[in-house]
Design brief:
The structure is a single chain. The chain folds into 2 domains: about 5-60 and about 285-300, no CATH class; about 60-265 and about 300-430, no CATH class. It is about 80% helix and about 0% strand. The protein has helices at about 5-20, 25-40, 40-55, 65-75, 80-90, 100-115, 115-135, 140-150, 160-170, 175-180, 180-200, 215-240, 245-260, 265-300, 305-315, 320-335, 340-355, 360-375, 380-390, 395-420, 425-430. The longest helix is centred in the middle third of the chain and has 34 residues, at about 265-300. One of its GO terms (cellular component) is plasma membrane. This is TRAP C4-dicarboxylate transport system permease DctM subunit domain-containing protein. Pfam families: DctM (PF06808).
Length: about 425
Amino acid sequence: MEWYTAFLLLAGGLVLAMASNIPVAFAFGIINIVAAYFLFGSVEALSFVVHASFSSVASIHLTAIPFFLLMGTIFVRTGLSSVVLDAVDRILSGVRASGCYVAIGSGALYGALMGASVASTAVMGATMVGDLRRRGYDNTLAMGPIIGSGTLANLIPPSLGAVLIGSLAGIPIADLLIAGVGPAIVVILLFCSYIAIKARRFTGVLAEVPATLRVRLGGVLLLLPMIVPVFFVTGVIYLGVATPTEASATGAFATFVVAAAYGRMNWRVFNESLMDALEIAAMIMLIVAGSKAYSQILAITGIAPGFAEFLAGVTSSPTVAVLIVLLIALVLGCFMDQTSVIFVTIPLVINAIQTLGVEPVWFGVLFSMIVGIGGITPPFGLNLFALKAVAPPDISMGEIYRICGPYVVLELLAVGVVLAFPGIVSVLVTAMR
């Protein structure tokens, strides 16, 4: 059987299973068992799937996932998000359309504390949209920055996407986490420039608090404790004193301490945070297990090597090859959630990318950016649905689709900048070494 025929059967079966509302992890499991049965026979098939699945989740690198998730769940359950919003609002008081910049700044901090773009978007939508509209912001200014800045969680440590991409592709996770900071800054600058242009005609309330130096310094002091968990993740990795797994544990502990210092932590909240993190981590681990067995089947059937040869035949340019892969991921992101795009695409393309000599960290960051864009791209961008779920009822899904358009374009422009200037990715990684 030719590799492309096997690919159509495997990919078609996976898409059919997902379209039938079967959870992603179980969809992988069903396809893996059926494919392994035809490859090895009944007993060997089950043994292969079990061994491949267990070996994937036994990786020490994946230990970081539950700790990073715990940071986010503590942040949400304790209501620290309101502290961040209040602090950033004070710092930017008096700036025209400051609420938009507050959304972007909060999105960056939420990304650094939560690591998941969907959760970041949902929290910002629930806490900011109503307030911004009350202060005179139209729906475009109230929701656009929230849609855009939610994707920063894919780039700013502790990005769960970076951990998953690194573990699947064999890319150093510490390098991926640090490398995302430069592109995140590019995205933030593009968003702020766009808002500065849009805000020229803004006539709403500038801020809820007076624009005085004392107020702004108070905002800085209020925000300083929030920097502690960020340092205990990004800082310790950058300084080389901890691995990503160790940094995830120190970050979770630091978040716990900060929440306790604000008087927002008790055993009930901690237990709820822990259970939330464990439930999400268990789901992700099941998907990882299924994806690993799926990637081995792609290799055994010749699909992964066949795709590598096909891509090498189409182009000898590493940049063009990366563009093709990114386009595939972008299209998939319009119809699948971000985690599924990572698990379906990376096992297929990583051999081709390595064969063509593409710099792995650069590719990993670009892929993470594209996956984030998929989350805000109609018709099935998961971030958009998360925002709709918490937005005021008079805001339609069609309006959210309209509002997200400029931010999709700006994110694609940021991808173009990183493609043209790879040093944006490598500068911090090189300094870290």
